[in-house]
Write a structure and sequence with these properties.
Elements lengths: L1 E5 L5 H10 L3 E5 L3 H9 L3 E2 L3 H6 L6 E4 L5 H13 L5 E4 L5 H12 L4 E8 L4 H4 L2 E5 L2 H6 L1 H7 L5 E5 L3 H29 L8 H8 L8 H12 L14 H12 L5 H13 L5 H14 L11
């Protein structure tokens, strides 16, 4: 099927590539034309303006937005609202707040444009292993686009989660849990580092060991093994760990619904703390975040 991809950043570019490799036609737009040129060489159809972008898509158009959540996405949707036709579908694949989805969908509905919210997890590894995709919005639109979701995801890795906002809501909770898991690993390794045995432990080997049948085995431990192999004591990494909106929103949601979430809240506050002082656990959090998502890492030398 034909998909229009708006935004060829860290996620959008590789998602477009995975769609191309799956036999779909991709019409691509990006603010900087160099990335469009690059993807055209790989088989995409390039569009260098929004008008050209919509002209190259056959109705009903499917437009997938992979841009930073917030004003950038909202401005793009406002522009699309004026140039798309009734029956066209917008898929917001970033990390917008689910409450924003409700407002956006209502505005688009006035023009007959359909809106799907798609929470996407997979980071920089998604091209090879697939993107876990959580979708909210009208089921009919989801089913129309299911061939694309199936191509993007690993087997069984996509789900229609419910009405508008459900996809981003589930992704928000996913990211809150991610915070807690990463924090638990980071604190555990710091306990070992501070112990009498710390100097003798090879943390890469410990990570590998725990991933061989233990209760706490996970992909994050696999990434940790690679992190420790490159920098056993994380001496080159500053422990500054930014927090994305979803982690905050998950904690806010817990407060709004009176759900006790001490682990998620504590892991969020740990990220606040990481911006104020240095610690081993913060350095590991920063390294893991870079390993799975390609997020920037502040080093004591050049920035990654």
């Amino acid at each position: 099927m034909q998909i229009g991809m708006l935004g060829l950043g860290r996620m959008g570019m590789n998602m477009a590539r995975r769609l191309l490799r799956g036999g779909h036609e991709v019409v691509a737009w990006n603010r900087s034309p160099e990335k469009i040129d690059q993807l055209v060489k790989e088989g995409a159809v390039g569009a260098y303006s929004l008008e050209e972008f919509t002209a190259r898509l056959a109705p009903p158009r499917a437009v997938w937005i992979m841009l930073p959540a917030g004003p950038v996405v909202q401005d793009m949707i406002s522009q699309l609202r004026e140039i798309l036709d009734p029956g066209d579908i917008i898929i917001e694949g970033g990390n917008s707040h689910y409450k924003d989805d409700l407002r956006i969908a209502a505005k688009l509905e006035e023009r007959g444009i359909v809106y799907l919210d798609a929470g996407v997890s997979g980071g920089i590894w998604g091209l090879s292993i697939g993107y876990c995709t959580m979708v909210g919005g009208p089921r009919e639109a989801f089913e129309h686009l299911e061939p694309a979701f199936k191509t993007l995801a690993p087997e069984g890795g996509y789900l229609h989660c419910g009405p508008t906002g459900a996809g981003h809501f589930v992704k928000m909770v996913h990211n809150g849990i991610e915070y807690g898991l990463m924090q638990a690993y980071a604190e555990g390794f710091e306990i070992m580092d501070a112990s009498p045995y710390g100097k003798n432990l090879d943390f890469a080997q410990v990570s590998r060991l725990w991933n061989r049948g233990s209760v706490i085995r996970s992909w994050l431990l696999e990434l940790a093994e690679g992190v420790f192999q490159k920098d056993p004591l994380l001496k080159d990494v500053a422990d500054i760990v930014e927090d994305s909106g979803e982690g905050r929103w998950a904690v806010q949601q817990a407060v709004e619904t009176s759900v006790p979430a001490p682990v998620l809240a504590a892991s969020l506050f740990a990220r606040f703390r990481s911006q104020q002082e240095s610690s081993f656990s913060g350095r590991l959090l920063a390294s893991l975040r870079h390993a799975f998502g390609g997020h920037g890492v502040t080093r004591k030398g050049p920035t990654l």
